[in-house]
Amino acid sequence: MIKLMATDMDGTFLRQDMSYDDVLFARLHAELQRRGIRWVVASGNQYFQLRSFFQAYPDTIYVAENGAYIRDSKQIYALNAFTPAAVQMILPVVQALPDVKLLVCGQKSAYALTTTDPAHVAAARHYYHQLEVIDSFDQIDDQILKFALTCPPEQTQALVDHLRAALTGVAEPTSSGHGDIDVIQPGMNKAAGLQILGDTLGIALADMGAFGDGGNDLEMIREVGMGVAMANAQPAVKTVADAITTTNEAQGVLQFIDDWLAVPQ
């Protein structure tokens, strides 16, 4: 029995213009609440950005930063940060990569260097509502949750392979596609975040549904009881999914939930 619905955002819940069908969601959210089904956002993005989409729904739980930071509007369920020693091992590796733009993502803010392309920083502010530009990463006084890399799309897989070898036992690279690579803590993915949340709420992964499109959704889609891939999802995600819905542009998440709610459970 599904007791929790979790969704990725970019390429999944949101249209390309970062909007969603407010009227349909309001109706579906009310029905989910009536049935006691928790609404969860599971994303690689920053908590502050994710929260901006659901200001009218304070019961929303956010599995942010690929599972490292889990909270709602009132409480923190889990905060899993890199150790300072791990941060010092990772930074030289990712900073040495050519043609790669880097953000260091913490609990309080994301951080870019003053040497980072201003156009990249401006674009990043759409996804990181708390973003500081600093002279050196040594200035950071924060819990580090993730390293966000942007590379030429055609280099993505090669860089993922390189980082996996270079950071074995320290960190893991995961790609959501389109030249974006997140360097996260070993084993700390969206499925792990949902497991942690489920332990707190008393909900097993088998009693969760999840929606996604990218490589960083794969574990989540595979391990929940009802994993749903978008029509625009990467092939590997579709392979492990229990069902496939329409595209994010066609509001596939909401359409699937609407149809699912209409069937007696």
Structure commentary:
- The mean pLDDT is 96.
- The radius of gyration is 18 Å and the shape is globular.
- Helices cover 33% and strands 24% of the residues.
- Helix 2 packs parallel to helix 10.
- The chain is built from ten helices and 14 strands.
- The strands form two sheets. It has an eight-stranded mixed β-sheet with strand order 5-4-3-2-1-12-13-14, sandwiched between helices.
- Strand 6 and strand 7 form a beta hairpin.
- With 265 residues, it is α/β, with parallel strands linked by helices.
Name a few traits of the molecule:
265 residues; alpha/beta; six-stranded mixed beta sheet; 10 helices; 14 strands; globular
Q: How would you state the average pLDDT, rounded?
A: 96
Broad shape: globular
The main sheet comes to: 8 strands, mixed
Query: What is the ordering of alpha helices and beta strands?
Result: EHHEHEEEHEEHEEHEEHEHEHEH
Report the β-strand fraction as a percent range.
Answer: 15-25%
Estimate percent helicity.
25-40%
The Rg value, from CA coordinates, equals 18 Å
Given as residue ranges, the uncertain stretches (5+ residues, pLDDT < 50) are none
Helix segment tally: 10
| Spatial arrangement of strands, main beta sheet | 5-4-3-2-1-12-13-14
From the N-terminal CA to the C-terminal CA, the straight-line distance is: 8 Å
Task: Decide which structural class fits the backbone.
Answer: alpha/beta
Total number of strands: 14
